[in-house]
Amino acid sequence: MSTTNLTQVDNYNYGIEKIFEQAQDFLPINGTDFVELYVGNAKQAAHFYKTAFGFQSLAYCGLETGNKEYCSYVIAQDKIRLVLTTPFNPDSEISEHIRKHGDGVKVIALWVDDARKSYSETTSRGAVSVMEPTVFSDESGEVVKAAIKTYGDTIHMFIERKNYKGVFLPGFEKWESEYNPSSCGLKYIDHMVGNVELGAMNTWASFYAHVMGFANLVTFDDKDISTQYTALMSKVMTNGNGRIKFPINEPAIGLKKSQVEEYLDFYGGPGCQHIAVATDDIVFTISEMRKRGVEFLHVPGTYYDTVLDRVGEIAEELSTLKSLGIMVDRDEEGYLLQIFTKPVEDRPTLFFEIIQRKGAKSFGKGNFQALFESIEAEQARRGTL
To answer: Which of 19, 146, 168, 355 lies 20 to 30 Å (CA to CA) from residue 382?
Structure first.
């Protein structure tokens, strides 16, 4: 952890006992505005996500729009917006981020009604500032942006766009493209998972509770998420309306290197481990993504021998789920269907989860054993277990 973040951790360590308080109303968030990834080649990355995941062209900034520092391609699918950014200057902060981390999430942007108030509320509670509230404008209106630090080099940006009618943000133009593959049925970002170092999970859970007003939705310890060799612990933090969920993972002591430790080693520190995107028809979505070359973790066939005994009646055909490798879990409200891609780049870091909720609002514990075994099998193949 950097010196800056060590200071930040000290500021946020208010005591774990208050994490279980209800989410507060001082920081209302409407949803995820966009997620920005710093990548080595944004043009090629955009083509990959369009082809494999069904995203479509939305907006662009770069040399042609007067930006001499970097280019950004914005791709969209329903309510999901990904921004893929590549620097022109090899000595820039963006270049250093890519050198250290590889392709990875830099900005988790949150859509708010009042960016100035969001900034004031969080910095007054100890958040470290990245950008003071700043107005950006063009002929389509104005956007107010502000940003604070979170784990590792990741930041949260507050986006206020109620006075803006443009395609994305000031400085961007509409990206006209003849190549726009059909949608895979992805709807919105369900949650985003952060991996942090051993001993830091409670600190960052406390940050989300006290600095951002989140509440602890569910906690998993090393008895819930473990195999013979590895384990992890996780706290899921949620905002008041449930539209933003941030699970925070840390490694637990085990006989071998866990998936979280592998991530931290290859990413070069804490960061966003995976982005979970929701669909209304996971069978269609995964069938389509598999046709387009997306690789998913293998689920042992024996998983399906007993899954219905655990989760009860479901509407889907179990044979179909088994053929696609889709897992099922249940909480008190209903059940959910989920599947995880393999890492989407050569470093075993960022991956995606596809999820469909059938009433479930939280996360069940039943899938973790099968998931961990699948990830360990991939680790063994990579020689990093």
So the answer is: 355
Query: What would the pLDDT profile of 102-136 be if each residue is shown by its tens digit?
Result: 999 999 999 999 999 999 999 999 999 999 999 99
pTM: 0.90
DSSP string, 127-191: PPEEEEEEEEEETTEEEEEEEEE-STT-EEEEEE-TTB-SSSSTT-EE---S--PPP--EEEEEE
CA dihedral angle for residue 32, residue 33, residue 38, residue 40, rounded to 10 degrees: 110
Place of tokens 């998420």: 225
Query: 């009604």: which residue's tokens?
Result: 113
Which of 236, 199, 262 lies closest to 365, judged by CA? 236
The SS3 call for residue 273 is strand
CA distances from 355 to 133, 290, 350 (A): 34, 15, 16
DSSP string, 72-92: EEEEEETTEEEEEEEES-TTS
Phi, psi of 318 (to 5 degrees): -60, -35
- Per the CB < 8 A criterion, the answer to whether 98 and 349 are in contact is no
Task: Quote the CA–CA distance of 185 and 245 in Å, as a whole number.
Answer: 21
Q: Find where tokens 């509407």 sit.
A: 315
Q: What percent of the chain has pLDDT over 70?
A: 86
Tokens 């280019």: give the residue.
71
C-alpha dihedral sign at 125, 126, 130, 132 = positive
